[in-house]
Predict the structure.
Amino acid sequence: MPRWRVLIVDDHASSRAAVGEAISVHGGQVVGNGSRVADALPLVTRHRPDVAIFAVGLPDGDGIEAARQVSAVAPCPVVLLTSHTDMQAVARAVDAGILAFLAKPLRAEELAPALDLAVTRFRELEAVRTENDRLKRKLESRKLVDRAKGLLIERLGLSEPEAYRRLQKTAMDTRKTMAEVAQALLLTEELGQPRAVK
C-alpha cells in the first residue's frame, strides 16, 4: 500500500514531474494528473485520492478555487503548491479548506510533512463534523419528541411522563424510533387529522 494516493493539478509539466518524483521517493503514488481548475473535481471524484496537490496558478483560475469546488462536492485534503503567498491568498486558501502549503520550487524534504499534516488535519476535521452531525440529529430528534409530548399533554391531558410513555410504547409497537413516531404525530396534527398514539 502506498503511503498516500496523490492527485496533482499543475499546468507546468516540470513541476508535476518534480512533485511526482518526491511523492514516489517518500512511498506515495500519483493516481492522477491535471493542468486546469476544470480537471480537479472530475479527477478527485474518479480517483478518490488520499490527498490532492493543487498549484495556485492555473490557466483557467487558481488552485484555491479548485479546492473550494472539491470541498463542496467530494471533500479531500488539499495542499496548495505556490511560488508566492500573500495574506489575502492565505486567507482565501484557509476559507477554501486548504490544509497545508508547499513552496515552489519544491524541496523534496518538505513534501512528506505537508502531506501527512494535511491528511491528519482532514481526518480530525471529518471526525469533528461527523460528531457534530450526530449531535445535531440527536437534538432535532429530542425537539420532535418534546413537541409531540406537548401535543399529547395538551390534547389528552396527560402528564409529561405519561405522554413520553405513550410515544415510547407506540415506537416499540411500530418498530420505529420515537422521533419518527413524534414526526408522524405532528404531521397528522398539522394536516388536521389528529391520530391517537396508543
